[in-house]
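#struct-help
A.M.: can someone run this one for me? Single chain, 70 residues.
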Amino acid sequence: MTFLFAVIGIAAIGFLLWRAFGPQLADSENRDERPTRQPSGPVGPDDDPDFLLDLDRRTRGPNGADGEDI
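D.P.: on it. Structure tokens below:
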């Protein structure tokens, strides 16, 4: 039973040391050098230019006029 507590304690201490001095230390040093991440593509259909163009075409009709003028 003592062996089990010792293993759990060593694992807990190792985890805490890793969290304290692990990858976050390298991340904070290089944070200024990294470029900010830009969105890779449209998030939703209202941000997609192709979708909006198609929606505009379908709404205005084949002659390009608004539907209210007809």
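A.M.: thanks! The mean pLDDT is 76.
D.P.: also worth noting: The helical segments are 2-21, 23-29, 49-60.
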